[in-house]
Amino acid sequence: MNYDAFADLLSDASSPVVLLEGTRELSTGQAPFLTSLAAHLARTFPHARFRTGNAKGCDEAFATGVASVDATRIEFVLPYSTHRNKQRPTESATTAIDDISSERVQELVDATLKASPHYQRVAVNYRECKTHPRQRATAQLLLRDTLKVTGTDTMPRPTAGIFYVHAADPDRRGTGHTMRVCRAQGVPVINQFQWLKWSF
Fold first, then answer.
1. Which of 62, 57, 22, 58 is closest to 42 using CA atoms?
2. Side by side, which strands form the sheet with 160-164?
3. Distance CA 94, CA 176 (A)
4. DSSP codes, 135-154
5. Nearest to 122 by CA among 144, 95, 96, 94
6. For residue 126, what pLDDT is reported?
7. Could you give the 3-state DSSP secondary structure of residue 113?
8. Contact yes or no for 187/17 (Cβ under 8 A)
9. Overall average pLDDT of the 41-64 stretch
10. Interatomic CA distance for residues 150 and 41, integer angstroms
11. Which domains does the chain possess?
12. What's the confidence (pLDDT) of residue 130?
């Protein structure tokens, strides 16, 4: 997707939400590109909100850009309510897995398995009493990634997702899973191989 098509997509939406995220493996030299893009989008589309997962690396770089314009317009979706709470602006809205109903959690499990069936063991065992704490933590991160896309009754599905992926293996780990959920939910996916070519 080129920049004009992306701009039209946001302009045509009454309350667009842009998902901003990517790999934790972000070099310090690349971080300014993400921060600059996010700040530009926040300035150019004042009716848009932005959403990320509060992880180190790309999520943090993108969030810094939005927050430099207006921290109230960046939403953080968290695996648990206290996740990296010192690394996010206090003015920003948050939604955590433990904030949602058990019925919604089951919907997240279903959407997770549809997008990434190889995570079945992790997702299905999330609420089992005997689940190992490490596996439960992995499941929380995975379901958080799904929630960023599916949304809730009060947190709408994103209009588009902008990603910075691992160049050699774009579909790896949580970022790859989030992009698969986007595609399954009909949310356009834009990675750096596209947006680094944008001119604005």
1. 62
2. 94-96, 74-78, 49-52, 17-22, 160-164, 189-190
3. 23
4. HHHHHHHHHHHHHHHH--SS
5. 144
6. 66
7. helix
8. no
9. 94
10. 22
11. 3-99+148-195 (3.40.50.450)
12. 57
